[in-house]
Design goal:
Blueprint: E1 11-14, E2 25-30, E3 33-38, E4 44-48, H1 49-55, E5 56-61
Antiparallel strand pairs: 1-2, 1-5, 2-3, 3-4
Pfam families: DUF951
Organism: Exiguobacterium sp. (strain ATCC BAA-1283 / AT1b)
Protein name: DUF951 domain-containing protein
Length: 67
């Protein structure tokens, strides 16, 4: 199985695009839950890590965790 590595402030691509037709999300919280923010419209979504792992496709940009 492929290891899914993502971290705080990474910009990721999900399997399905958001309603605003953008498929770029920034990770703003990492823990038992993952919060992601749409880079198109600014909507914020909180989901369980298990659900995020199912919907996660790839990391587009590495973020700076110090921010």
């Amino acid at each position: 199985m492929q290891s899914k590595t993502y971290a705080l402030n990474d910009v990721v691509e999900m399997k399905k695009p958001h309603a605003c037709k953008t498929n770029r999300w920034q990770i703003t919280r990492v823990g038992m839950d993952i919060r992601i923010k749409c880079q198109g419209c600014g909507a914020s979504v909180l989901m369980q890590r298990r659900d995020f792992d199912k919907r996660f496709k790839k990391v587009l940009e590495q973020g700076n965790a110090a921010e």
